[in-house]
Design goal:
By secondary structure, this protein is of the alpha+beta class. It is built from two helices and eleven strands, in the order H-E-E-E-E-E-E-E-E-E-E-E-H. The longest helix has 33 residues, at 167-199. The protein starts with a helix and ends with a helix.
Length: 200
């Protein structure tokens, strides 16, 4: 019975000793910087001012945004590359504007609001368009920002805004009889008066 009591006490004492040792080891690791570090922020990030845009056929619009730089050094706006996807190319033209004008974005700062790209639509769209324009930003150091999207709606042109293909041809055909009639009148008016003059 004495032996059992001693083992129970030493087991309890061992558990406390083990807990204190683990606590001491964690404290030392924290002091030495060996503890798990928080996740590092992305070196560059992109945020757009607009999350959705509505345009009429024939309109254009400039999408703006800001870039956050925590890459470890200053970056120029010409140091970035903007990859664009998801738009219907034949009906919508997208032109990157980032880098014009050139702006310095120091390390650990957020840029002023920048012109990122311009969307231009065809004037004679016959159906509405709805799409997501995806923007992927990268820099000269090989860093990538998370992809950002902007929802775009383009409203079709009204029926009266779209000219018929043969409108000009039909107008010219309608004018031909008027021109012929006027020419006939001139030639008819000159003929009898000349005859009268000659007969007198």
């Amino acid at each position: 019975m004495l032996a059992t009591s001693w083992f129970q006490r030493s087991g309890h004492f061992g558990a406390r000793l083990l807990a204190r040792g683990a606590l001491l080891a964690a404290s030392v690791a924290g002091l030495l910087g060996l503890a798990a570090a928080p996740a590092a922020a992305a070196p560059i990030t992109l945020s757009t001012t607009q999350t959705s845009v509505v345009l009429d056929a024939g309109d254009s619009f400039v999408i703006t945004g800001q870039i956050t730089n925590v890459s470890g050094g200053p970056l120029l706006t010409t140091d970035f590359f903007l990859s664009l996807s998801g738009y219907p190319f034949p009906f919508v033209d997208v032109t990157p504007l980032l880098g014009d004008p050139e702006v310095v974005i120091p390390d650990r700062t957020i840029s002023p609001v920048l012109d990122l790209l311009m969307i231009a639509t065809l004037p004679d769209l016959l159906a509405d368009l709805n799409f997501n324009l995806f923007l992927l930003l990268s820099d000269i150091n090989g860093n990538f920002a998370d992809e950002v999207s902007v929802a775009v709606t383009v409203r079709a042109a009204a029926a009266s805004d779209v000219p018929e293909p043969g409108t000009l041809a039909l107008a010219l055909i309608a004018l031909v009889p008027l021109v012929v009639r006027r020419a006939h009148r001139r030639s008819g008016a000159a003929g009898p008066s000349a005859t009268l003059l000659a007969g007198t």
